[in-house]
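hey so i finally got around to running the thing on that chain from the lab meeting. sorry it took forever, my laptop kept dying and i had to restart like 3 times. anyway pasting the input first so we r on the same page abt which one it is
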Amino acid sequence: MELPGVTREDINLNMTEGELEIGVETERRKYHKRVKLPAKVDPKTTKATYTNGILDVTVAKVGGDSGMKIPVEAESL
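ok and heres what got predicted. didnt touch it at all, straight out
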């Protein structure tokens, strides 16, 4: 997420199993957003970094299938 013009200390994050809440409140800027997550997550695994105006949040999904690698085959001509 792009959050230019704020400092790391201005950003407030709150993670639940199904939603991420982002808030910024400074003298010049107020921002609030709730993002519904497509899968259930473990809030304890949340990691957030803020570099050059970009907020990056990662979190691990809870349970479910971890997926599998799908090979990409060449087309036969």
